[in-house]
Amino acid sequence: MADEQAPETTTEAPKAKRRWLPIIVVAAIMLGEGAAIFILASAMKSGPAAALAGEGAGSSGTGPGARNKLVEVALAECRPSNKMSGKFVTFQIRVLGLVAAEDFERAQELVESRKARLEDGVNIVIRSAEPKQLNEPDLSTLRRRLRQEFGRIFDDPDLIKQVLIPSMLQSGPGV
Q1: Is the pLDDT of residue 113 over 90?
Q2: Domain boundary assignment for the chain
């Protein structure tokens, strides 16, 4: 009887090994793929950074990407009115501008020193705007006119690259 039990246990041992074999093979393949992806990602990541460092070495400490970067600067927040449509409408408006990164500090100083002129410029543009300009989906006419007005106030038409109007609320009779 002892002889009968021994062959049965030896035949089960190879079956148990066969059950684990696919799991071990799949785990080894996944580990290899993970290592390959890690190596490729590391190689791709370090390539552009090294190229930028080499290009920017001769410049004044700023890489080529910094020259094209635009940053936001708050220009005005006021409550102008308009009655060009025959109705008195008040607006709550917030205006920002995009300036080149290297001009940010100069723009901030100009905004602080000319705050009242900026708000007055926004008031002039809104008060003189036609109703269809105030209701444009992208406010492109207002943005263009505000950019021109800010260029005049700053004595630099190219300082503000783009005007942003993140908030413009209307209130008044019939609105």
Answers
A1: yes
A2: 2-58, 69-171
Residue with the larger pLDDT of the pair 60 and 144: 144
Mean pLDDT of 6-19: 61
Tokens 């705007």 belong to 129
DSSP 128: T
45-54, 119-128, 135-144: least confident range:
45-54
For residue 115, give the H/E element and its range.
helix 115-127
Q: Please tell us whether the domain made up of 69-171 is placed in CATH 1.10.10.10.
A: no
CA atoms within 13 A on the CB side of 7: 3
* Reported pTM: 0.60
Altogether, the residues listed in the chain come to a count of 175
Q: Which residues contact 76 (CB under 8 A, 6 or more apart)?
A: 93, 94, 95, 115, 118, 119, 121, 122
SS (H, E, C) 148-166: HHHHHHHCCCCCCCEEEEE
